[in-house]
Amino acid sequence: MQAAPPRHFPPIPSPLPAIKQPPAGASISYHPHRSTTIASAAISASIPALIPPAIEPRFFPAADESCATAFWDYQMLFLSQRSETTEPIVLRAIDGAIPADFPPGTYYLTGPGIFADDHGSTLHPLDGHGYLRAFVFAGGGATRYSARYVDTAAAREEKYESDAGADGWRFTHRGPFSVLKGGKRVGNLKVMKNVANTAVVRWGRRLMCLWEGGDPYEIDASTMETIGTVDLIGESGEKERSRRRRVGGGGFRETAVDLATALLRPVLHGVFNMPAKRLLSHYKIDGKRNRLLTLSCNAEDMLLPRSNFTFYEFDEKFELKQKKEFVIPDHLMIHDWAFTKNHYILFGNRIKLDLSGTMLALCGLSPMISALSLNPSQSKTPIYLLPRFESPTKGQRDWRVPIEAPSQLWISHIANAFEEDDGGDNGGGGVNIQIQASACSYQWFDFKKMFGYNWKSTKLDPSFMNDSQGNKSRLPHLVKISIKLDQSGVCRFCGAANSSSGWSWPADFPTINGTLAGQRNEFMYAGTASGTRRFLPHFPFDSVVKLNCIDGTVASWCAGKRKFIGEPIFVARGEGGGEDDGYILVVEYLVSKVRCNLVILDAKRIGRANAIVARLEVPKNLYFPLGFHGFWDHQFTSNTKL
């Protein structure tokens, strides 16, 4: 039975044919001190309503854009894929060819694979079971593709063999973001649904899929089969606690939080099966020290006005080289974070308990995440510079005092952070810190509505992701935060601005050349939108933007009409080249044809007409939904089955 469309859209007729939009591969360059140039055929227009400021490189929106077309294109981006590969499949190059200097390795991409079961329930994309994709570049121009579901405990419970012999699904775990229609709603305590769908990393020859709140799942890189969970931080149960570094000196408030913690822990662990410490999905790799950095928080942090963060650093043999814990007396939710040579950096995304939302969630009438809401009570953004190493001097700043950015930002993803001596500024001996990230406003971000999830309609409402209300800074966009500390560690300046003075268009999933993580970088890449879709002007993304972080130069590549893209990832061409001497890998989704391709762009040529190096076609029967985060593994081994 077809459900009603989201309330923001009128009744949905059948999708209309493709509309005229930028040609595939249209490339645009912009310099803040020069006029915009377009290296493609000119696009005529007659509808000015959604035109961005003239300084930004944008095409005009098409006059005949259809609400129905936009709606169904958006649904196709989250179309379930139940099939898996049994053997690797060689991909066909439909444009260009893989260059001879493309390095051997594997591009892993994870994300949700299924959104609807066979009994009427529809999941929020963040609760979809992890679907791992692998693109293996073995040299010689051949690329092989494999895809398998991560065999998590939740997947084993919810997947079954139907009478016809095919795989069936019945969702039994409600997860943090979803409401079940065909399963148990009231009294369903299966909230912690580890679907291993958020990030993927290969470190020390171990391939792992991560999720926001549980142990990673290890995958056999040669077969794509799931090995099992990895207790990476060694604290899944109530194990020993490292020495805490606390803000404040205790008192009644601290005693009350300690008491609440003691009462909550056995409930969260025994009733809701939550681990004592939740590993965050975002990790960092310090290439200079050859370390994998991870971060965890305590289970009770979601409900109490105190946040416990533990940082871990592993060498390539997974030997724990360092572990540091910090306790901050504020109710925070951290999704991504940063590091420099001397600091861990956390942005204080403030949250609070929502009592009415809690009652609705317990009654099964709203997702469990409804128990939390954003806390916009403060007009500034706290930034915690946490010491990564013990200072040999006594001049180290008091990390317990956050630095406050002058504007209120909800940080979603961080591309990079680095610190440098000020070279004599401010009297000498000071430090300059810069963070490059994507941020949105507290007024836009909503846990329950991300991706337009609506469990009642069973469809995703794209209007939420495009609701700028005339102010693009409400939506995720690229920002640069600059901090100056004097020789005593006192903050003399903290500012937040758009990453480029000539670029303010919504964008997310920022990335850099990974070899420069924690060091000064010149270039940043991200997903953005061309603004050509009348009803989808900001999301989903259809373009890759390349931003020069030094001079503000911006260039972009657009996939073309009725195509969307996922997260871009940088692959270095080899050692000894420049920072942008390499390639960008990005998946493009041809939603009108239900096809997807892996596109290889020359990072140096983004902004020119010949940016595309190759386009590799995934077979139609293996079309997959939007991926979340990927990883480039340069440690290719020739004996792998893939």
Automatic annotation (TrEMBL):
Entry cofactors: Fe(2+)
Domain of life: Eukaryota
Keywords from the named record: Dioxygenase, Iron, Metal-binding, Oxidoreductase
Record family assignment: Belongs to the carotenoid oxygenase family.
Name assigned to this protein: Carotenoid cleavage dioxygenase 7
